[in-house]
Amino acid sequence: MGKARIGVFGLGTMGSALAQNFADKGIPVAVTNREADWIAPFLAKAGPLADRITGAETLADFVAALATPRLILLMIPSGAPVDAMIEAFRPLLAPGDTLIDAGNADFNDTIRRAAELAEAGLYFVGIGVSGGEEGARTGPSMMVGGSADSWTQLQPVLEPIAAKFEGDPCIAHLGPDGAGHFVKTVHNGIEYADMQMIAEVYGLLRDGAGWDAPRIGALFQSWEDGPLASFLIETTARILLVTDPLSGRPMVDMIRDQAGQKGTGRWTVIEALKLGQSASAIEAAVGARSWSAAKSARLAAATQLPAGTAPADLPPPLDLAEALYAGRLLAHLQGFDILRAASAEFGWSLDRARIAEIWRAGCIIRSALLSDLAPILRATPDRPSYLAPGIADLLAPTLPALRRTVAGAATLGLPVPSLSAALAWYDTARQGVGTANLIQAQRDVFGRHGFERTDRPGKTHADWG
Ligand code: 6PG
Questions:
Q1: Each residue's pLDDT tens digit in the chain (465 positions)?
Q2: How many angstroms is it from 188 CA to the middle of ligand 1?
Q3: Active-site residues: which are they?
Q4: End-to-end Cα, the chain, rounded Å
Q5: What is the distance between the alpha carbons of residues 143 and 130, in angstroms, rounded to a whole number?
Q6: Which of 70, 343, 364, 424 has a CA between 20 and 30 Å from the CA of residue 147?
Q7: Which are the contacts of 6, defined by CB distance < 8 A and separation ≥ 6?
Q8: Cα angle for residues 105, 271, 116 (degrees, 5° grid)
């Protein structure tokens, strides 16, 4: 076998799947792992694909197996392990070589690492890879940062392994240094909101209407081909139809209501706030996961605090579908406006339409909604996404159902934090004359901060008595 065109360091779930995907597409790949005893079982599992895979037990052998300039993809936990591996590889590399971090990294770290390695003539590229294990194996969506030079080298190797949407590879060079990881972070923020809103509708049907899991699953299944078509709806329908072999009950009913989170949703909210953006639907989803962890406090509050005022009319299934569409659309718009703000702040020229396009297949949030959004964003590159012509046409038929759903849930005392935050965000966005005049007056009373009058320019104060 000749030299490998790319090396994958890290044979965990995602690294193994990506390495097999390269081999599958005819790209010779070298692999290695911190624990060298993982390599042989991986090669055995790869079957005939192993003919295109070089297993190397040491970093030196791994680097020697690569064609130059070398492309090394790290698929390891983010944070300190990435810095440690960069230091381990550094003495073995030559100017022009590229290290790729394909994990869920904080884009601030990616910017720092790219600058540090540039001093040694090395490239560092952050790539957001979405789609879980199956996506990595058969075609993920990939959000690429780093320099234009790096992209020239990476494109021929990465494009063949990307997911395709009607033939269009779901991969793009989105901007320099941390742009790819930033876009992946926002993807995950939207993922959190999307998952949460689906869970909120499930909660309304379970706790408000008394439906069992298979009945809710069948409803979600009926949404798989319409405007709500998405990987997450399909996945949810599938989950709700599974029976636990131990208890004979729906599997979902046997799972503790405490969700994990690795941090990318939280990063989205933190970066949004730093950029002066409201990502309230995403924040509500992150907050809901944090609330889920507080199980014993919730159980105590459930008996101590007053409940909603049932009975209330819960909207019918069609309303819930439309409410979910409107809520998801608004959460996506929040994400796209974070991207717009980041693009201006960091000088990235992010192409939001292209981002929507590469999210149409391969990634966790792939959906029919993104096919609705991509052309709208393409036609309006420079404005806040909610002002793009076409958005109003998507919202007009679905927003009334979101209002009825949020109102019904509020009356019943059932939490729909992400759906209601999305609605409040929308109503705030379209409030041409808001209430910040009163905030300014309050600030002037207690802090003499001053305000601008509506009838003349400049800052002034009032005598508040
Ligand atoms: C993807 C996912 C993935 C993420 C998991 C878990 O795009 O493939 O976003 O990258 O790591 O979904 O994320 P949480 O643990 O934060 O839920």
A1: 689 999 999 999 999 999 999 999 999 999 999 999 999 999 999 999 999 999 999 999 999 999 999 999 999 999 999 999 999 999 999 999 999 999 999 999 999 999 999 999 999 999 999 999 999 999 999 999 999 999 999 999 999 999 999 999 999 999 999 999 999 999 999 999 999 999 999 999 999 999 999 999 999 999 999 999 999 999 999 999 999 999 999 999 999 999 999 999 999 999 999 999 999 999 999 999 999 999 999 999 999 999 888 766 778 888 999 999 999 999 999 999 999 999 999 999 999 999 999 999 999 999 999 999 999 999 987 889 999 999 999 999 999 999 999 999 999 999 999 999 999 999 999 999 999 999 999 999 999 999 999 999 999 999 999
A2: 7
A3: 184, 191
A4: 86
A5: 8
A6: 364
A7: 22, 27, 29, 30, 66, 71, 72, 73, 157
A8: 45
Locate 51 and state its tokens.
Answer: 């003919």
Q: 13 CB under 6 A from ligand 1?
A: no
Helix and strand totals (H; E) in the chain: 20, 12
> For a pocket test of ligand 1, which of 13, 127, 186, 188 has the largest count of ligand atoms closer than 8 A to its C-beta?
188
Please, what are the domains in the chain?
6-177 (3.40.50.720), 185-429 (1.10.1040.10), 434-465 (1.20.5.320)
Q: Does the Cβ of 130 fall within 6 Å of ligand 1?
A: yes
pTM exceeding 0.90 = yes
Q: Is 120 helix (H, G, I), strand (E, B) or coil?
A: coil
Give the single-character DSSP code of 367.
B
Please choose from 190, 264, 268, 367 the residue to mutate so as to test ligand 1's pocket, defined by most ligand atoms within 8 A of CB: 264
